[in-house]
Every structure is written in structure tokens, then in C-alpha cells.
Amino acid sequence: MSKDSARRISAMNEDLLRPLVETSWRFWLLVAVLGSIVATGLGTWAYQMYRGFGMTGINMPIYWAFYITTFVFWIGISHAGLMIGAMFPIIHLGRPWLFFWLMPYPNQRMIWPNFRSPLVWDFFAISTYLTGSLLFLALPMIPDLALVRDKTTGWRHRVYGVLALGWQGTPKQWHRLESAMQIMAIAIIPVAVSVHTIVSFDFSMAPVPMWHSAIFGPYFVAGAIFSGIAALIIAMAALRKFLHLEEYLHPVHFQNLGKLLLMMSLLWAYFIFNERLTVWYGNASAEREVFLVTQRGAFAPLFWTMVVCNFAIPFVILSIKKLRTITGCVIASFTVVVGMWLERFLIVVPSLGHKYLPYTWGHYSPRPVEIIIVASTFAAMVLLYVLFSKLVPIISIWELKVGEHYVADATPRQFRRHLEPRVLGQQTDELLAHRTGGAEHGDVEGSHQIRWKTIR
């Protein structure tokens, strides 16, 4: 390894491990503020359980409102929001301490949950997605946790030693880790698609105006990708700013994500136009009423705000190269997050409030209890990110070093090959085998040994 590469790797260790070993008063202040908001939300939830659902604005015929809206929103944000979104079916229960009734557990009366209930579907979908997401997140963290273990002392060394699962960087461990990562990278895609589709079935399987539609499956999947990219851009910008990661999160990363966000904005506009056009042309009486109340009635301000946030602003900012900066991408992403929450709200409430018989129509307005609980989930989301960035390297150090090591020390011919879309493990093995001199292309053991020395 050249001296320049060694210096870069040493600086990389210092930059990316600094948040884990150094703590400022700003961190504790932020944790205290966010923790107080989350505690307020938990206290409000306890008060709601004590007083009952009469404290909320939920009433006949609108039995799904703020809570189910936020549940669908956080599931759409995907992996990070999954843990928070999983709470909302429980919050929505009148007796949440009996949440285990949703589980198909053996009992003396041989009474099992109603498998036709969307809540039961959500239980299986969320539990499967949560398990897959945790595995998908934990596997690439093992080498970095071992690195933190080797760089720290005292209680940190012991804690990270347990979390590293005995990782020593042996060829067998590298082979198994990469195999597991490749399997999870493939498996998580159908799991994610199926979960968002099942969440859409909560609506499309019900005979409710503008719900009973075959388009809801791909519509929800696209919406989840759309809001997930927006949340990712916001998280990256915040981490880049507050953790001083400018050397690792470059403007080109935001520009590429901005292009992807623009594509999803156009796809979202296609879905929303297709849905509205079908309803307008079909002219069914019940669906027409929902259509009119969202286009020109009481929900019209929310609907057109949604259109501006999800399409107009992102299209203007992200389609112009000069505006597609880090700041521009963050602004577009904030509007998308707001617009996607409004979209979920407009799916749930107007349709329930305007069913087939006019005498069953109703009105909904959120109460302070619902607003506080929903607002606390956003604070909980930020708090989880803050704590995660304090406990785990927020950027995969070993993958970054492998890429840095390859680009810095490769010959021009190898560098051109690096630009080709190849598997990371194959690139690394080929380069490290070449640089060892004694390891041939197929000498995986020699390449893995050199790799772990380089990463450490």
C-alpha cells in the first residue's frame, strides 16, 4: 500500500469514527429535545388508552384517519420508518394491550384471527419486512463493528466485540458474508414489493369508492420508492452537514438521486392522472362525489397542495441542472415528504366520508391527541437516526476503503475495468490478487487476507 493510500485510510478512520467516540453538548441537547417530544407522544397515547377513542376525531363512518394515514406513510418511507409504522396498527386498536390477538397463536378455544382482516395481513407483512430489513442492515455492518472493536478500549471494546460476532476477517467469514449479502440484496426486493402491495390491499380489497382498484398495488409501490428516495436525500444532507462528511457524500450523489426522484415524480403524476381520469370517465355516482370533494370541495386545498409538492416543485427544480444542487434536492425532497403524507390522507379520509349512501356521509377533523401522537413519530424518526449515527458508522467504512484502495492503486487498465458494472467482490479479489504478486486470479484466500489488512 502506498503512503498516500495509507494516509487516506487513516483519515477515513478518523472522520467516520469520530461521531462514535466524541460527543458534544449539541448532541445531548438534540437528544433531550427529541426525547421530550417522543415522551410527550407516549404520554398522550397512554392518556388516549385511559380515556378511550372518544378523545380522537375518529367517528362513524370515518374509522381510519390520522393513524392509518401515518402508518401507510411510514411503511412507504420503508426500512427506517418500518419500526415506527409498525406501531400504528397497535395505536389504532381500541385495546392495544391485546395486540397479540392479531397473531395466529394456539389457544384453548381454538379461536384464530380472521385472516380476511387487513390488520392480520399487515402483521405478517410488517413482521416479514422488519426481519428482512434488520438482516439487510446488520450484515454489512459486521466488518465495521469489528473495526470499531479494534480501535476502541474499555466498555466500547467489549460491546462492539459482542456486536461484531467474532469477526476476524478470515477468508471463510468474507465468503459467507458476501454470499449472505448477495442473497439478502436479491430477497429484499420481492419482500419490499409484496409488503407495499399488501398494504395497498388494506384499501383495494374494500368496496369503498376510489379504493376498489387494481392500480393500488403498483401505485403504492411507486409511492413508497418516491417517498423513500426523498427521505434518503434529506437524511444524507443532514448527516453531511452535521457530521462533516463532505469528503464522502459528494454533490454528484445528490444529483443522481435527484434524477431518480424526478423520474419517480413523473411516474407518480402518471398514476394520479390515470386514477382520476378513470374515475371521471366512469362517472359512478359514489366515486364522482369523492372525486368532486377532493378536486373542488373541502379537500381541494389539500389535493392541489399535494400536486404542487409531489410534481410541480420537484419537476421545476430537478429538471433544471443548475437548480439540481444539494440545496435544491433537499427542498424538492421536503416537499415530496409533505405531499406524500397528504396523498395518504386523501386516500383514507375522503373515501370513508363519502360512501355509497349519502345519509352515511360524515366529516372528520383531527383532535390534539392525534396531532401530538403523529408529530411525536417524526421526532422519534429523527431520534433513531441521531442515536444510530452515534452508535454505528453511518457510512460503510470497509466498502468505502475497498473502493478507495482500488481506484488509488489500480493501473489505468484496471481503473477502466473498475468503471464497468461488475460485482464488488470480484473487483476486489482481482485487484488484491494482482497487487499481492503471489496470489492468482482464483486465489480468494490471499485476496481476502490482504483486504482485511487494508480495511483495518
Describe this structure in words.
The structure is a single chain. The protein is an all-alpha fold and 456 residues long. Among the domains are: 25-205 and 366-396, no CATH class; 410-455, no CATH class. Helices cover 73% and strands 0% of the residues. The protein contains 19 helices and no strands. α3 (66-77) packs antiparallel against α4 (79-85), α3 (66-77) packs antiparallel against α14 and α13 packs antiparallel against α14. The chain starts with a helix and ends with a helix. Residues 414-447 have low confidence and may be disordered.
Helix coverage percent: over 70%
Number of strands: 0
Main beta sheet: strand number and arrangement? Answer: none
User: What spatial form do the alpha-carbon principal axes imply?
Assistant: globular
Rg computed from alpha carbons, rounded to a whole number of angstroms = 25 Å
Question: Could you state the order of secondary-structure elements as H and E?
Answer: HHHHHHHHHHHHHHHHHHH
Mean pLDDT over the residues: 80
Query: Structural class, from helix and strand content?
Result: mainly alpha
* Number of separate helices: 19
Cα(first) to Cα(last) distance is 13 Å
